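ok so i was messing around last nite and threw this chain in just to see what happens. nothing serious, just curious
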Amino acid sequence: METNWHGNNGYFRNGADKLPDNLICDICATEAKVGKRIFACPNVKEPWHKKIARLKRAVRLSEKNKDRDLRKKKLAATKEIERLLKKHITR
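result:
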């Protein structure tokens, strides 16, 4: 799974009257559960899911700040994200 650094964090809010049939979490690629006007990934409260969200936020912040070591940070974050997903998501 390729890392989407700018995707959702497992929560989706929809102000429209018609909700989409499904949404996929950009953290773990799991289909979100439908609430009244909120979709939420079933894994959103898991520590590993939160850690991936933090790693992605850190990379986005590094991009925004034009950090010199962005490439190194992305590589390290990607490896850790892959490790966490492999451990917690079975496909």
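not much to say yet. The longest strand covers residues 11-13.
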